[in-house]
Design the sequence.
C-alpha cells in the first residue's frame, strides 16, 4: 500500500471515529494536517498572522462540516479546498485594501520540506545549461510572483510547492484536469515574462 493510500485509509478511519462521537479523532486530524495547511496558506498569503487565522478557520469549518462529509474525495483534498477558498477570500480582501506585502523566497517550501522556495521556482525555469540560483534571480522570482495574477500564483504554489497531482489540484480548485494543465502552462509563461521584464 502506498504512503498516499495509507494516509487516505487513516483519514477515513479518523473521520468515522469522529462521526461516531470520538472528539479525540478530530484532534489527531488537526495535528496531522496543521503544518501542511498552514504551509500552503502561508505561501498564498505570505503573512504569518493571516495564515494562522485562515488555518484556524479552516479547521473550525472542517469540524463543523465533517458530519456531512460524504468521502467523495480524500479528507486531505477536502481540507485543502476549504483552506484554499478561505485564503483566496482573505487575499482579495486585503488586496483591495492595498496592504503592503513582502515575500521571502528564502523561506522553506513547507513544514515538511525545507527546500527554499527560490529553488522550486528556479528549477521550473532551468534551461539545458541550468540557471545558477543567485540571490538576484531569487529576488526577480519574488517580484515576478507579485506581478502575476492571484489565480496563476495559486496554481503554481499548489503544483510546485505542495507537489499536488493534476487531479488533486482539479478537485481543490473545482476545475477540470485540462484546465489545470493549461492554467499551469499559462502561469509559468506569465511568471517567465514577469521575470524577463525584471532582467531588462
Sequence:
Amino acid at each position: 500500500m502506498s504512503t498516499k493510500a495509507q494516509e487516505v485509509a487513516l483519514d477515513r478511519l479518523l473521520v468515522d471515529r469522529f462521526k461516531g462521537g470520538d472528539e479525540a479523532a478530530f484532534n489527531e486530524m488537526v495535528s496531522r494536517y496543521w503544518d501542511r495547511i498552514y504551509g500552503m496558506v502561508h505561501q498564498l498569503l505570505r503573512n504569518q498572522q493571516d495564515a494562522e487565522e485562515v488555518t484556524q478557520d479552516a479547521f473550525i469549518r472542517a469540524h463543523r462540516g465533517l458530519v456531512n462529509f460524504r468521502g467523495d474525495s480524500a479528507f486531505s483534498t477536502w481540507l485543502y479546498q476549504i483552506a484554499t477558498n478561505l485564503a483566496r477570500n482573505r487575499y482579495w480582501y486585503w488586496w483591495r485594501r492595498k496592504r503592503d506585502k513582502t515575500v521571502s523566497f528564502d523561506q522553506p517550501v513547507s513544514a515538511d520540506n525545507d527546500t527554499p522556495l527560490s529553488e522550486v521556482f528556479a528549477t521550473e525555469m532551468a534551461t539545458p545549461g541550468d540557471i545558477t540560483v543567485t540571490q538576484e534571480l531569487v529576488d526577480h522570482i519574488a517580484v515576478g510572483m507579485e506581478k502575476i495574477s492571484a489565480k496563476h500564483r495559486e496554481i503554481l504554489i499548489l503544483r510546485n510547492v505542495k507537489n499536488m497531482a493534476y487531479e488533486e489540484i482539479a478537485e481543490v480548485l473545482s476545475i477540470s484536469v485540462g484546465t489545470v494543465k493549461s492554467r499551469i502552462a499559462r502561469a509559468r509563461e506569465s511568471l517567465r515574462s514577469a521575470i524577463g521584464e525584471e532582467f531588462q
The chain has two domains: 1-102, 104-200. Confidence is low (pLDDT under 50) at residues 98-103, 122-133.
